[in-house]
């Protein structure tokens, strides 16, 4: 696989520099190493701050969700690898407006241990933090171990809702409760068609035969629970949707938000093919789609594949999703 | 061992340890995301650099803290964070002591393992680094009669690696593989074994007790 | 290459159905075959209508630029192939609000001949049309034959500006003049790293060795003027930028809008690497970037590669770019 | 030929003509975007279908118009649009005439070529279908003494294809190749040649004049 890059080791620093050059009105980097991005107006006095973070290579995740009505800051790791606790702490300080800080990120060991360390350090600085973990990938653990699931594209819903709650002035515990509520009601599953190549190692993240797909794949190319023949768009949409509907326990009369997410190399046209079938299936089941997102929201460099996320909606959740938000990568009017 | 001797021993050991990066990366590729090789090579390089500039008069604890900080930030990851925390916890056992000997090593190792267990919400049998670390710490503390403590620790760690191969992962990335993790060797436990082996071969004379 | 599709022959109809299911509030399909999409509020009485169109496989081009402050309608061809004149005519009728219709699309023979036929047919229906062709790809013809260049990603600028002009009530000739002015001042060049595979033929659009890139590639995989070793992101940005700056004849004191466009499979991170270097180079030259777009705006299914477009700015052009616009795929607040 | 005879001859010809789809697609792959094979196969199928349902009493012009419409919409492209326009222009020569013979064929061909030239802003030497079409039309109108008109047209088209190979494309997609287009054979001109050859072999007796 070929890449448009310079020195592999400089990859992250350079693209972050590019993001800053492109969006100086919306983002700023408070530390000299530029491994933290925060809203241009951070810290917002009296507002709960939201810090996210994780490995690079997933744009627009995570850096893309820093903005008004979304997260306030992000700590940026190397490709597919956690930011350090020192970086998380810096991000925490840079967004702290006096109302406490929510840590909202995906459930990955490296991130968890580093954010946990930052929690202790922030406390020493007098900043209270609460952690909520994205853990929407139903393929990663059975329902009984839902707390151990990894976090994937569905965290978008939590960013949007928690960001809206923070913006309207909710307290730290309230914002955390919103995020927790969203995550408890979100389920995602993905398929992969081709691997990703890390710039530094130049090795494929996994190997897959011609005509094969990996069902339940993670956004770092983690294996899923099944490897089999590539199915049609309709078949893929069907099996993922059935699984998500069962996991959420939703049925006729319920409402959902749908996210059809591309992993990087999959054309937008193909994502709309998936959405089409998801829409048909949910409609047949009497479940209405009150909000949808189709596009690239959480990628894995140049991996081909897609994921489908469902969020069970109620009035409150839908209202939070529909609140205005703006980052260089995400706009809700 | 005083701080300076420890610092030299650590650097000798790390130079050898990094030669296992590829093996560890490949094991992590099969069971996780393949970055353990990078964590080890960048982490060892950063720790070595940190020790190169540390004053000769540093205490053993200061040596360990310098390593912990360097390792934590070089390639932050599960292993980097857990190991850094473990080194911190271990060094608390030593306090300001200017030299460390005998069972201070074993007590360090046990405190380190306990730190990982606590932070990682994990225990022996979860198929993690702890499956090698806890038995090794016990062996260091109470080596079989007549046995060299380090050799005993290596044997214990090796048994841990072998036994845990047949277990299902219950923590970290590997746990997502569920049943598919059975039969694959844990990269973290292997890393710990390779560390002990590197210590032995790089510092044969210094560590024979 | 693997695709998430159903019947290849149904590809276009199915993803258009997906788009309609996802965005019923913003788009509608006035004909039974659903090969035309128009703004949900079309026709807007008294406003100049703008119709675009072309082959499929380029999302968000062309369908993505139908909305408020953009185009009013699009005629949808099969993958990489023109819509028919009958479809263009239907789109024309559906958006005609009595003030005439601008045809704004890329300079490709198939499209030109079919839109030209539609012009004759529209005249019979009493609808006046004016045609402006996107022809921004500097690699396709030397400057002396600029009128014969093909149209690529840079048409985005013309959509935005002409859409804004139409929205503020300009006459057909004025809107056409705005589009023409933008296109005269836009230059694009692209590189390709991997081919695209047509769903119907399942053949790659071109072949490229390991470690090679095609410089000057078109958005259907048309060959460029040079095939060579893959360069670094910085080198690519340099050679493309130099060529574009020379073509536009801009220099110190001038202002531009920059579009760094991904062709489909190239990660967003890599596009920001390119933007970074473009920004550095233009800054060195004393040329300021007053507007930028970085992302996928005109793709070629799953082709890996990128293009860079520059638009020489003046106050009027910049104001038009900054006017609000909204489609399901493009928002300017 | 009356309309019904023409319709049968066209369908015979198209059945043969589509066997060249792959060759034409490959030529267009080298010089353009590779879709000419699809235009030809879908276009021929659509035209055949349209003729299948056309009434037996249709005039030659009605036969041609049915083909034009079907071909234009099957896979709209440069060739589809130009050919459809050319058929329209050619059929204007025939008007309502119930049968067509002799130089009506050549006049049709010349009007068709002129339509393409006008719509495509192209002429002989630009390396397009016209390089085969104009010489063929001339040959149909004034065949060398004793020669069969169709054979003369095929010879003329073939010479056009060969000569234009060495030219640089000046119209359409191929023109973007600039100097790189020299040496490659024009798919449109080749398509026209194959069409004439298909007509001959599929309708040998009917068209011998
Ligand atoms: N919760 C945990 N407790 C103890 N050890 C763990 C835990 N999670 C993972 N590990 C160890 O970490 C190793 C993987 O380390 P690393 O590659 O850094 O993880 P990651 O890439 O997921 O951040 C595993 O092989 C295992 O030994
Ligand atoms: N302007 C033109 N005038 C005449 N013939 C043309 C013109 N442009 C292209 N052609 C002919 O069309 C052929 C390509 O047809 P087609 O594959 O349908 O084009 P495209 O794929 O670009 O729409 C060329 O080989 C050439 O013979
Ligand atoms: Mg990792
Ligand atoms: Mg790992
Ligand atoms: Mg074409
Ligand atoms: Mg073609």
UniProtKB/TrEMBL annotation, chains A, C:
Pfam families: Dak1 (PF02733). Keywords: Kinase, Transferase. InterPro entries: DhaK_dom, Dihydroxyacetone_Kinase. This is Dihydroxyacetone kinase DhaK subunit. The keyword Kinase applies. GO terms for molecular function: glycerone kinase activity. It comes from the Bacteria. PANTHER family: TRIOKINASE/FMN CYCLASE, TRIOKINASE_FMN CYCLASE. The keyword Cell inner membrane does not apply. One of its GO terms (biological process) is glycerol catabolic process. GO terms for cellular component: cytosol. Residues 7-330 form the DhaK domain. PROSITE patterns: DHAK.
TrEMBL record, chains B, D:
SMART domains: Dak2. GO terms for biological process: glycerol catabolic process. The keyword ATP-binding does not apply. GO terms for molecular function: glycerone kinase activity. Keywords: Kinase, Transferase. PROSITE patterns: DHAL (PS51480). GO terms for cellular component: cytosol. Gene3D superfamilies: 1.25.40.340. The keyword Kinase applies. Pfam families: Dak2 (PF02734). Residues 4-201 form the DhaL domain. PANTHER family: TRIOKINASE/FMN CYCLASE, TRIOKINASE_FMN CYCLASE. This is Dihydroxyacetone kinase, C-terminal domain. It comes from Mycetocola miduiensis.
């Amino acid at each position: 696989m070929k890449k448009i890059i310079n020195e592999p080791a400089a990859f992250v620093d350079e693209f972050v520099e590019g993001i800053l050059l492109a969006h100086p009105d919306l983002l700023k980097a408070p530390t000299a190493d530029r491994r933290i991005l925060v809203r241009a107006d951070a810290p917002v006095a009296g507002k709960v701050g939201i810090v996210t973070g994780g490995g690079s290579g997933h744009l627009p995740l995570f850096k893309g969700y820093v903005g008004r009505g979304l997260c306030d800051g992000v700590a940026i790791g190397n490709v597919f690898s956690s930011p350090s606790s020192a970086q998380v702490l810096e991000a925490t300080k840079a967004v702290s407006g006096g109302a406490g800080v929510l840590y909202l990120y995906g459930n990955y060991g490296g991130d968890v241990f580093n954010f946990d360390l930052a929690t202790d350090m922030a406390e020493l600085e007098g900043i209270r933090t609460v952690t909520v973990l994205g853990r929407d990938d139903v393929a990663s653990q059975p329902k009984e171990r839902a707390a151990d699931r990894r976090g994937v594209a569905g965290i978008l819903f939590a960013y949007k809702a928690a960001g809206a709650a923070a913006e309207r002035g909710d307290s730290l515990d309230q914002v955390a409760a919103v995020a927790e509520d969203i995550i408890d009601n979100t389920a995602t599953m993905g398929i992969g068609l081709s691997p990703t190549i890390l710039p530094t190692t130049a090795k494929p993240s996994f190997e897959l035969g011609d005509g094969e797909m990996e069902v339940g794949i993670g956004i770092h190319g983690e294996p899923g629970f099944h490897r089999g023949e590539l199915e049609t768009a309709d078949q893929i949409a069907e099996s993922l949707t059935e699984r998500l509907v069962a996991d959420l326990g939703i049925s006729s009369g319920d409402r959902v938000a749908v996210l059809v997410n591309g992993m990087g190399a999959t054309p937008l046209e193909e994502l709309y093919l998936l959405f089409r079938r998801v829409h048909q299936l949910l409609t047949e089941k009497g479940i209405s789609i009150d909000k949808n997102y189709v596009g690239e929201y959480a990628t894995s460099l140049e991996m081909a594949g897609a994921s489908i996320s469902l969020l069970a909606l109620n009035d409150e959740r839908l209202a939070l999703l529909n609140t205005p938000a703006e980052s260089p990568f995400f706009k809700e009017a | 061992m005083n701080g300076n001797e420890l610092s030299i021993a650590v650097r000798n050991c790390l130079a050898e340890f990094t030669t296992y990066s590829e093996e560890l990366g490949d094991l992590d590729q099969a069971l996780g995301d393949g970055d353990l090789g990078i964590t080890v090579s960048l982490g060892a390089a950063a720790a070595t650099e940190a020790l190169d500039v540390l004053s000769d008069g540093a205490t053993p604890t200061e040596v360990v803290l310098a390593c912990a900080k360097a390792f934590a930030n070089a390639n932050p990851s599960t292993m980097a964070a857990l190991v850094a925390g473990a080194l911190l916890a271990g060094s608390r056992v030593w306090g300001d002591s200017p030299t460390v000997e005998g069972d201070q090593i074993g007590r360090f190792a046990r405190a380190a393992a306990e730190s990982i267990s606590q932070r990682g919400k994990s225990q022996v049998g979860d198929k993690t680094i702890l499956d090698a670390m806890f038995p090794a710490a016990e062996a260091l503390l109470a080596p079989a009669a007549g046995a060299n403590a380090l050799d005993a620790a290596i044997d214990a760690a090796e048994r841990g690696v072998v036994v845990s191969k047949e277990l299902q992962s219950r923590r970290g990335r590997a746990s997502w593989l569920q049943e598919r993790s059975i039969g694959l060797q844990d990269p973290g436990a292997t890393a710990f074994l390779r560390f002990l082996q590197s210590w032995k071969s790089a510092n044969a004379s210094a560590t024979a007790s």
